[in-house]
Every structure is written in structure tokens, then in C-alpha cells.
Amino acid sequence: MRLLKALIILIALAIILGVAREARSQMKDVQQTLDAVLNNARTTALNSSRVKWDSLREVVTLSSANAKTTPDLKYSFEVIFKSLDDQQAVIFDPATMTRIAGCDRQPSPSNEPLTFFLAEEGIAYIRLPASGTATNADEYANAVRAAVDSLTKDGAIAWIIDLRYAANGDSRAMLAGLAPLFEEGLVATTVDNRKKINDMYTVHNGNLYVNQVEIGNFAPHQGDLSKTRIAILTSTQTRGAAEIVSIGFKGRKNTKFFGEQTAGDIFATTTINIAPNLTMRLSSMLYVDKRGREYLKAPEPDLAIEFSRGEPLDKDKAIREASMWLIKMHKSGTEVASLGS
């Protein structure tokens, strides 16, 4: 009987010790995860220099004192992102794409097809949909370039580029398709938290290059569109990649923006694998247009016009105002510098 009691006690102790070891191991893993997030954010985040990191570490360490699993760190992660003033930051499980903390904004659904036609007075209209992902980037860029080539061949004298339905996707695909419409040379750059240039977007002979590497494989475009007049339409649904395209057009001569301020997902991001089941994405670079203007907030239109999704094109206020401006400028032959910022 005594032997049985002793055996039971030993088994109970073993269970208790095992549970304690597992708890310590979990706490150690949680602390390592928190340290990895802090260290990577300090190195990579765009607004890293604004943060008092020693004080922040103390705060999040206290806030995570009772955390036993990664999801328990949600509040600590949110504190870090708030300190960074990063509205695009997110931590998620890459296997399930389950968000743990950070940005939960979803792009507006866009089933709009690529639409283009030549309107009255020789005004070309192109409505860009969301560009999807990198897996279909070439297909998207080719379709947009084909539209530009077709409208040029049909005799377009001015252009309306409608970005109001475009949410997220691949900015390089968008820019590559529209490349003949940009001025030759620099289009935009990205700079990191040390003001170091990371990516340089340029156009040469009507084709897009990023860090001197050509994006897409297009035949030479027939005709020089670099000085043609362009109206850019934007809305609060213009998000991510489409916002980068709008920044690319900022600083271009003979270009005017109509519509609404864009959504605000304007920073380039870096994705970091913190652990096998944890990935962090941070805003790490900002965009600078060809004239050196840094974009710390969403681009604004030169002429504010409320967007009504699904409105017939012949009743669309932004299209009407843009068309009137393009016709007026064409008839007067006036050259204009870049407008807005």
C-alpha cells in the first residue's frame, strides 16, 4: 500500500514537473517571438527612428507577462504597431492566413474588367481593374499594353486613366502596361528608413525598368506619348498598387488628377518570417515621385469630385470634368507643369 502511494506521488510529481517544463518552454518561445518582432521592427520599420525602443520594450514586456501562446501577444503587437504609426502592419499565420494583429482592412471587391475605348474628340479612356497577384502579372501588363497600343493606333490625342476601381495587386504590372504614357527617365523611387534608395523606377523607350531590369517583354511602342495630356481618376477605393501608379504620374507634365483622395496604403512593405507559423509585414519604404516629393499621406486630386461606384460613364462627373479639361487644353495647345502633390 505504501509502495502504491509512493508510486502515485512520483507519477503526480512527474506530471507536475512536466507541465512546469512545458509552461517554461512556452513562455520562452513567447518571449523569443516578442523579441524577434521588436528587433525586426526596429531594424526594418519606416518610422523606426521615432520610437523610444527601450521604453517600448519595457511596456510590451509587462503587457505580455501572462502570455502563454503567440495569439496571447496580440495586445503587445498592437502596441508596437501603434508606436510605429503603421496602418499597414500585420502579423499573421502564413499557413492559414489568419490575422493575429494589425491591419484588417480588406480591399474593396472589384470584378470590373479592363475597359478601354476611344471617345469623342479623340480622348482615350482606360479603366484599370485590380491587377491580381504576381502570378498573373505578365498577363495583366500585356493586356494593358495592348489597350494602350490599340488606342494609340486609333488616333488618341489625350487620355483618361481611371484608377477608381483598382484595389491592390501588382504595381509593376500596372506601370509596365502604362509605361508609354510616362515621360522618359525617372518615374519614382522608394527610400527606406535611412533615406537610402531601394528601388528606382524608370522608363526607357516606352518600357518600364526597376533597378535597370526591364519589366515585361514588349515590342517597341509606336509613337511618343510622353507629352500627351492625361487625366487620372482616383477614389477612396484606389488602393495599394493603384496608389503607387498614381504617385508615378505625380510630377508628370500635362497631367491632372480628378476624384477623391486615395485609400492610404502608400508605403512599400517588407515581409519577415518570425517563426514557422508567424509572419510579419511592415511598412518599410516610402515612395518619392520624379520631382523628389515624398508621399507620407495618400495622394490627393487636383479637383475633388465624389465617386459614385457603378454610375453610367455618360453621367460620370469625374469623366465629364476630365474630358472638358483635356479638350480645352488640346484646343489651346497649352503646356502645363505637374499639378498638385
Provide structural commentary.
Mean pLDDT is 87; it is low at 17-25. This protein has seven helices and 14 strands. The radius of gyration is 26 Å and the shape is elongated. The chain folds into two domains: 2-85; 115-269 and 286-332, 2-enoyl-CoA Hydratase, Chain A, domain 1 (Alpha-Beta Complex), CATH 3.90.226. The longest helix is centred in the N-terminal third of the chain and has 43 residues, at 2-44. The protein has 341 residues and is of the alpha/beta class. Strands 1, 2, 6, 7, 8, 9, 12 and 13 form an eight-stranded antiparallel beta sheet that branches. It has a six-stranded mixed beta sheet with strand order 3-4-5-10-11-14, sandwiched between helices.
Question: Which SSEs are present, and which pair or pack?
Answer:
Layout: H1 2-44, H2 53-63, H3 74-84, E1 90-93, E2 98-102, E3 115-118, E4 123-127, H4 137-153, E5 158-162, H5 171-178, E6 185-191, E7 197-204, E8 207-210, E9 213-214, E10 229-234, H6 241-249, E11 255-259, E12 268-275, E13 278-289, E14 303-304, H7 317-332
Helix pairs in contact: 1-2, 2-3, 4-5, 5-6
Q: CATH top level of the largest domain?
A: Alpha Beta
End-to-end separation: 87 Å
Uncertain residue ranges: 17-25
Order of helices and strands: HHHEEEEHEHEEEEEHEEEEH
The CATH topology of the largest domain is given as 2-enoyl-CoA Hydratase, Chain A, domain 1
Radius of gyration: 26 Å
CATH homology-level superfamily of the largest domain: 2-enoyl-CoA Hydratase, Chain A, domain 1
Range of helix content: 25-40%
Query: What is the average per-residue confidence, as pLDDT, rounded to a whole number?
Result: 87
Shape: elongated
